[in-house]
Amino acid sequence: MERNISSPTLEYMQRICEILGVSITDLLIPQKQEHIIVRKADKITIIENDFFKV
Q1: CA dist list (Å): 48 to 11, 24, 25, 42, 51
Q2: Do residues 13 and 24 make contact, with C-beta atoms less than 8 angstroms apart?
Q3: What's the rounded Cα separation, in Å, for the pair 14 and 17?
Q4: What are the Cα distances from residue 18, in Å, to 2, 10, 11, 13?
Q5: Is residue 41 a contact partner of residue 50, using CB atoms and an 8 Å limit?
Q6: Residue 1 has pLDDT above 70, yes or no
Q7: Which residues contact 24 (CB under 8 A, 6 or more apart)?
Q8: Which member of 7, 35, 38, 46 has the lowest number of beta carbons within 10 Å of its beta carbon?
Q9: pLDDT score of 51 more than 80
Q10: Cα separation of 49 and 54, whole Å?
Q11: From CA 43, how far away is CA 12, in angstroms rounded?
Q12: Is 53 left (phi over 0), alpha (psi -120 to 50) or beta?
């Protein structure tokens, strides 16, 4: 399945979905992804020491 060697049946896909706790539509319908953009000027420093800056 991963390497496109075989195609799973719907029954097999249903079993995989049950194990993962998702529905088949979750796998087949593309999900909208949220993108967050943080500009350098908008960043704030919370913790800073000799090793890192967060």
Answers
A1: 53, 45, 45, 17, 8
A2: yes
A3: 5
A4: 19, 12, 11, 9
A5: no
A6: no
A7: 10, 13, 14, 17
A8: 35
A9: no
A10: 9
A11: 47
A12: beta
One-letter identity of residue 1 = M
pLDDT tens, position by position, 16-50:
889 999 998 888 887 788 888 888 888 877 777 77
Structure tokens at 4: 């496109």
Which tokens belong to 29? 């319908």
Compute the distance between CA of residue 1 and CA of residue 8 in angstroms, rounded to an integer. Answer: 7
Q: Which residues contact 1 (CB under 8 A, 6 or more apart)?
A: 7, 8
Query: What is the C-alpha to C-alpha distance for residues 28 and 16, in angstroms, rounded to an integer?
Result: 13
* pLDDT, position 30: 79
